């Protein structure tokens, strides 16, 4: 930090204590001072100039904006603080940091207030690493941080989910002689709550009582949010009803957190009890409280209670949106209750409220649907309250909606648009759009139909793998899905018993042999053109389900699909959608595969498939039979059993039976427990097996050993993995046969790296490890050998 010389310090002293100045003599008249500009005007002008520069301006531009105010800042240092506070409120942390550099460059003192403003700006954007850097810079320059400084830094850590750093700052605050207040504890507790660490939040509450720091409603709401995130509904109820009524009354945020915790645990009666108890303390019920209580009833299929709460919500009055009514309708359908009257009533009410001009849209639709490029957003058709747009590949649903809104505005449409569903950026096809802003009658009606599962969608895709059957064969895939965050902010959806319910029906259209220039995992793999109907609307549902049964979509690199040169994009197209407009009439826009996928027409169908004869599906199935589940007979689509997976009762089930010696295997993300715990779990219920989605993001990984030139029996293959660095294999296995390790899940690790580097001998789900470094027919020795940090030579047998 810049240190002022003696003269400058003397001037500061005179400004701070004007009585130290020499009085003017009688012979020497007083010098008339020039008028000065007020600090507010100067600060406001500088702040406006800095805001215009954007969030990350150049240092030279910041210097240029601040230099005209240098004289004013020298006379009145508070003007600088006013500018930095304005930047902090806007979250312009980079600009604020560069302003402090300008101050140091010009010899102005940067004090605790200035640094605190910079840290507050970092807190606004969750830049906790930068906040800690600025805090460390303060200590290096021997500027003692205040309680406000630490509070801002801890809040930044809370927003960045950095709870260890928040707790460390709390200790440093005490070491620096500062006293933590309720804001300090609440910020640290919020950081723990985001991670579901309710026990640490409870410890902080106890520390507050011991330090005689008064707790407030924010303190308890934060603690209850931590219990909610950790699914500790019993603990949340005890804390809620144990709050000191004399000093702190529970508010609606506290009640909502407890109701949400009960909803996640399926304790809908406890959720309703907490909801009713709000009347005891005369706590106002808002939309969030009603939503949580209704969601708990919907999850428990208590449709009568959900309907009662929705009607009570309307009587408050609080508007019930379409998504909430859709949940009520779903609960009624699951209880075999008719929803025709409810749907008709909602349609009439929302239709009477809709005021969108319909005649103007006829002109817009005809203009936008005629001459637009097949690679641009188009209006296909429209009805009362809804229109259908074509979304091309490579464009997100949000971006498509913005382009569509711009096109309609050019044609005179002055209203807003909203969507109820989305298509992946790589997927093309029909996208329904409501003619109105979110929460409008048209948007509510469309959202209601999606939430009540009244919408029918039909996709067309091309996948590769062992044949699912001849033309007309029908099947269904049922598996829970959970979203995972991968590297570089990529999303991936995996099969898991704890995931959301998902069901996908399909029908085989055409079957073709693979071109000669396409490598496949199995020699008998084919290309299959499928018509797919997702009965639930989960993220990446079709892509994950088809990849999970070993038939990934062509062009889907994220799920290990084939990526030939003649298919430059994901071969997934939403062909048709069926909804109802505000006149309660069917609205079924269709976009054919050939008319909007010209690259496939020319490069694939016209050039490739015309020269490829249909595969002999029946002959291939003699070697790779596709069995039909006996529990899916009748007019409903039949469930086909993939070669790699064992299907039973329309889902993948197995008992989790682990031996104590196998629990500590270091092969990836396997769950570890004691033998008694596993036995007790098997006595209570049958767990659904977690299935992995084959493949991984196309990212560079560590070097993998080259394929081994060794002999293997038919149906077996050898791989070599270097585990000497301590890296994990990244696989979950089952050993119930006592001799081999069945691969159930492939996570990130050496096995996935091997698959990325070797196109032929790829390890797949369903393969068995039969030998490790010469050891075989003893599962315990296989496990022990895999745990060693050395080069592993694995012999694997293809799944049957």
TrEMBL record:
Chaperone among keywords: no
Origin superkingdom: Eukaryota
Region spans: Disordered: 19-41
GO biological process: pseudouridine synthesis
UniProt-listed CDD domains: PseudoU_synth_RluA_like
Keyword set, alphabetical order: Repeat
Molecular function terms from GO: pseudouridine synthase activity; RNA binding
One Pfam family from the record: PPR_3
Classification via SUPFAM superfamilies: PDZ domain-like, Pseudouridine synthase
InterPro entries in the cross-refs: PDZ (IPR001478), PDZ_sf (IPR036034), PPR_rpt (IPR002885), PsdUridine_synth_cat_dom_sf (IPR020103), PsdUridine_synth_RsuA/RluA (IPR006145), TPR-like_helical_dom_sf (IPR011990)
PPR repeat feature ranges: 111-145, 146-180, 216-250, 251-285
Bias-annotated ranges (Basic residues): 30-40
Residues of the PDZ domain: 718-781
PANTHER family for the chain: PENTATRICOPEPTIDE REPEAT-CONTAINING PROTEIN GUN1, CHLOROPLASTIC, PPR_LONG DOMAIN-CONTAINING PROTEIN
Official protein name in the record: PDZ domain-containing protein
Highest classification ranks of the organism: Eukaryota, Sar, Alveolata, Dinophyceae, Suessiales
């Amino acid at each position: 930090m810049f240190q002022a010389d003696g003269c400058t310090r003397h001037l500061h002293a005179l400004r701070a204590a004007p009585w130290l100045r020499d009085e003017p003599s009688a012979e020497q008249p007083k010098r008339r001072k020039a008028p000065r500009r007020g600090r507010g005007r100067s600060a406001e002008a500088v702040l406006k100039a800095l805001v215009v520069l954007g969030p990350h301006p150049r240092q030279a531009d910041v210097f240029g904006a601040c230099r005209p105010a240098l004289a004013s800042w020298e006379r009145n240092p508070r003007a600088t603080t006013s500018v930095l506070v304005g930047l902090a409120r806007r979250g312009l942390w980079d600009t604020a940091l560069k302003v402090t550099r300008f101050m140091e460059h010009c010899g102005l003192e940067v004090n605790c207030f200035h640094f605190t403003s910079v840290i507050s700006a970092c807190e606004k954007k969750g830049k906790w690493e930068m906040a800690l850097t600025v805090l460390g810079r303060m200590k290096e320059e021997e500027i003692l941080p205040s309680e406000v400084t630490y509070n801002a830094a801890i809040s930044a850590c809370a927003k960045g989910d950095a709870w260890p750093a928040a707790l460390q700052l709390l200790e440093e605050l005490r070491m620096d002689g500062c006293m933590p207040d309720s804001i300090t504890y609440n910020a640290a507790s919020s950081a723990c709550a985001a991670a579901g660490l309710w026990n640490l939040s409870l410890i902080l509450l106890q520390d507050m009582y011991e330090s005689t720091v008064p707790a407030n409603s924010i303190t308890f709401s934060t603690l209850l949010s931590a219990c909610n995130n950790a699914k500790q509904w019993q603990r949340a109820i005890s804390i809620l009803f144990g709050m000191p009524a004399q000093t702190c009354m529970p508010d609606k945020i506290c009640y909502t957190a407890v109701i949400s915790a009960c909803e996640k645990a399926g304790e809908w009666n406890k959720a309703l009890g907490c909801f009713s108890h709000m009347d005891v303390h005369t706590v106002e019920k808002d939309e969030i409280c009603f939503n949580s209580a209704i969601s708990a009833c919907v999850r428990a299929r208590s449709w009568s209670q959900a309907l009662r709460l929705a009607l009570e919500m309307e009587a408050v009055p609080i508007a019930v949106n379409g998504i909430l009514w859709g949940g009520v309708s779903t609960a009624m359908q699951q209880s075999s209750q008719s929803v025709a009257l409810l749907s008709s009533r909602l349609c009439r009410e929302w239709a009477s409220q809709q005021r969108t001009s319909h005649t103007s849209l006829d002109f817009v639709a005809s203009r936008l649907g005629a001459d637009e490029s097949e690679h641009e957003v188009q209006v296909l058709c429209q009805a009362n309250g809804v229109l259908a747009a074509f979304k091309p590949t490579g464009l997100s649903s949000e971006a498509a909606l913005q382009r569509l809104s711009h096109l309609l505005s050019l044609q005179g449409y002055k209203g807003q648009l909203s969507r109820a569903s989305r298509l992946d950026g790589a997927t093309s096809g029909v996208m329904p759009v409501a003619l109105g802003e979110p929460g409008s009658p048209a948007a509510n009606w469309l959202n209601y139909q999606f939430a009540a599962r009244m919408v029918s969608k039909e996709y067309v895709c091309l996948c590769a793998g062992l044949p699912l059957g001849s033309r007309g064969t029908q099947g269904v895939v049922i598996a829970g899905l959970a979203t995972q965050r991968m590297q570089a902010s990529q999303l991936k959806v995996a099969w898991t018993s704890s995931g959301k319910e998902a069901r996908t029906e399909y029908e085989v259209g055409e079957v073709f042999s693979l071109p000669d220039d396409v490598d496949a995992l199995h020699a008998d793999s084919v290309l299959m053109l499928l018509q797919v109907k997702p009965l639930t609307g989960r993220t990446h549902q079709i892509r994950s389900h088809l990849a999970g049964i070993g038939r990934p979509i062509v062009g889907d690199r994220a799920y290990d699909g084939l990526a030939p040169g003649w298919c430059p994009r994901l071969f997934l197209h939403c062909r048709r959608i069926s909804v109802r407009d505000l006149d309660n009439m069917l609205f079924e826009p269709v976009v054919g595969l050939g008319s909007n996928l010209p690259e496939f027409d020319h490069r694939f169908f016209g050039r490739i498939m015309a020269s490829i004869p249909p595969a002999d599906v029946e002959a291939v199935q003699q070697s790779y039979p596709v069995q039909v589940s006996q529990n899916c007979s009748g007019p409903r689509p039949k469930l086909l059993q993939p070669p790699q997976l064992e299907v039973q009762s329309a889902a993948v089930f197995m008992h989790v039976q682990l031996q104590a010696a196998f629990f500590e295997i270091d092969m990836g993300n396997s769950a570890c427990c004691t033998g008694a715990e596993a036995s007790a779990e098997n006595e209570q219920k049958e767990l659904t097996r977690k299935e992995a989605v084959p493949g991984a993001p196309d990212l560079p990984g560590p070097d993998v050993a080259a394929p081994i030139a060794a002999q293997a029996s038919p149906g077996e293959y050898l791989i070599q993995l270097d585990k000497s660095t301590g890296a994990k294999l990244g696989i979950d296995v089952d050993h119930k046969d006592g001799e081999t390790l069945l691969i159930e899940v492939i996570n990130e690790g050496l096995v996935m790296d091997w698959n990325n580097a070797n196109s032929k001998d790829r390890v797949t789900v369903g393969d068995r490890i039969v030998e490790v470094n010469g050891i075989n027919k003893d599962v315990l020795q296989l496990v022990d050998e895999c745990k060693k940090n050395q080069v592993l030579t694995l012999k694997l047998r293809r799944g049957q």
